[in-house]
């Protein structure tokens, strides 16, 4: 079938993207679902820094590539071997398909699925297939999803069925921002009620982490960013303290305000400076968690003696250490109970033709979560 999709032809385009237009809106061919695959009519797809890092070349991927990995939609057709979904079902897409058989999957850690990671790196679906073509030449899939498009053929292992009453533009945010941010708090760190928490980097994932900490019953919730407007918004979402990271004294001020540092510090900015700050404000015996994704060349260093003598813990968190079929329904239930205001993270709704301007807005920090609505 013919579809319209946003295709990245080359990385490293100059800013502003509204002028250089790294994403071209092309008519491309989409094959129907093969064995174990599903054709989804995309309803909404979120703009994320993980997309931006491919556009600017920080995280190299094979091109041309149809971008988009945070999305929700409606099942249009199921392929052979898929008997637990049907046309009309509402689904959220997950950007690491889980094979269910490799060692991480067998250990209950599907976010670390090895075949899924290999397929994502190669720009294929979990099966190894590519279902996208432009003028007869293959177009790579982005993280097994490629959701900046009217339709997407994806692995069944990339989908979680959801309650059809949830608006799909809001549901899209659960596939990345919420899974990653909330999961870092409740799965990776297992923050107990009453613990003091700091979140550094108040984008979509960072603010999802913040509302996850509030929902988990954290005592002090410290929000840290470079933008005062985001700090003010964080207060509305439940932050008890805010600090602008531009000040050289930020780490000292946070430690003073929290009696020696927080129990858990979450780095969600994807920068080494943010990670260094997170480590500095973590108390003795505390845990520093990073779910940010800086360029592969970025290195973080710390005094090893402090790690030992203060019994510190440093943890990485990928997709919030999630088990999607378990976590997505739970997070959606909390949202519908009014305990996690995910809808407040959605600041812009765009048309597909406005996507380059949307990534300018994301780069400039002028948006929290934007979705392309189809």
Any descriptors?
alpha/beta; Rossmann fold; single chain; 30% helix; 374 residues; 12 helices; 2 domains; seven-stranded mixed sheet; six-stranded parallel sheet
SSE topology sketch:
Elements: E1 2-8, H1 17-20, E2 23-30, E3 37-47, H2 49-55, E4 65-66, E5 70-78, E6 90-93, H3 103-106, H4 114-122, E7 132-134, E8 137-141, E9 151-155, E10 159-161, H5 168-189, E11 197-200, H6 204-215, E12 221-225, H7 228-236, E13 241-244, H8 250-257, E14 262-267, H9 272-280, E15 282-290, H10 304-309, E16 313-316, H11 324-336, E17 346-350, H12 355-363, E18 369-373
Parallel strand pairs: 4-8, 11-12, 11-14, 12-13, 14-15, 15-16, 17-18
Antiparallel strand pairs: 1-2, 1-4, 2-7, 3-5, 3-9, 3-18, 5-6, 6-10, 7-8
Give a short overview.
With about 375 residues, this protein is α/β, with parallel strands linked by helices.
Describe this entry's structure for a reader.
The chain is an alpha/beta fold and about 375 residues long. The chain has 2 domains: about 1-160 and about 340-374, Quinone Oxidoreductase, Chain A, domain 1, CATH 3.90.180; about 180-320, NAD(P)-binding Rossmann-like Domain (Rossmann fold). It contains 12 helices and 18 strands. The protein has helices at about 15-20, 50-55, 105, 115-120, 170-190, 205-215, 230-235, 250-255, 270-280, 305-310, 325-335, 355-365, and strands at about 1-10, 25-30, 35-45, 65, 70-80, 90-95, 130-135, 135-140, 150-155, 160, 195-200, 220-225, 240-245, 260-265, 280-290, 315, 345-350, 370-374. The strands form 3 sheets. Strands 3, 5, 6, 9, 10, 17 and 18 form a 7-stranded mixed beta sheet that branches. Strands 13-12-11-14-15-16 form a 6-stranded parallel beta sheet, sandwiched between helices. A hairpin with a 2-residue loop joins strand 7 (about 130-135) and strand 8 (about 135-140).
């Amino acid at each position: 079938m013919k579809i319209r999709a946003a295709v990245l032809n080359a990385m490293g385009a100059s800013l502003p993207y509204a002028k250089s237009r790294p994403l071209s809106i092309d008519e491309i061919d989409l094959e129907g679902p093969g064995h174990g695959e599903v054709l989804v009519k995309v309803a909404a797809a979120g703009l994320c820094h993980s997309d931006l890092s491919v556009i600017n070349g920080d995280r190299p991927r094979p091109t041309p590539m149809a971008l988009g990995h945070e999305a929700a939609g409606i099942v249009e057709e199921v392929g052979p071997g898929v008997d637990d979904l049907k046309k009309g079902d509402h689904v959220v897409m997950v950007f690491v398909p889980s094979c269910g058989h490799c060692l991480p999957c067998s250990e209950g850690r599907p976010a670390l699925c090895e075949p899924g990671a290999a397929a994502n790196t190669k720009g294929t679906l979990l099966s190894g297939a590519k279902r996208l073509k432009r003028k007869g030449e293959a177009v790579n899939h982005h993280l097994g999803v490629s959701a900046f498009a009217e339709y997407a053929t994806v692995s069944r292992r990339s989908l979680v069925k959801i309650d059809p009453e949830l608006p799909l533009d809001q549901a899209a945010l659960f596939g990345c921002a919420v899974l990653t941010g909330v999961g870092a708090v409740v799965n990776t760190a297992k923050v107990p009620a009453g613990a003091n928490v700091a979140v550094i980097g108040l984008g979509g994932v960072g603010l999802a982490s913040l509302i996850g900490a509030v929902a988990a019953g954290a005592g002090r919730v410290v929000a840290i960013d470079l933008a005062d407007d985001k700090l003010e918004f964080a207060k509305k979402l439940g932050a008890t303290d805010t600090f602008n990271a531009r000040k050289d004294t930020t780490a000292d001020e946070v430690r003073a305000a929290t009696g020696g540092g927080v129990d858990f510090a979450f780095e969600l900015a994807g920068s080494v400076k943010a990670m260094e700050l997170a480590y500095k404000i973590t108390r003795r015996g505390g845990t520093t968690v990073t779910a940010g994704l800086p360029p592969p060349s970025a290195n973080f260093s710390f005094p090893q003696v402090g790690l030992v003598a203060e019994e510190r813990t440093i943890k990485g968190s990928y997709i919030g250490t999630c088990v999607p079929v378990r976590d997505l329904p739970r997070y959606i239930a909390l949202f519908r109970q009014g305990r996690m205001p995910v809808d407040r993270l959605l600041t812009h709704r765009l048309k597909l033709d406005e996507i380059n301007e949307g990534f300018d807005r994301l780069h400039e920090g002028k948006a929290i979560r934007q979705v392309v609505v189809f």
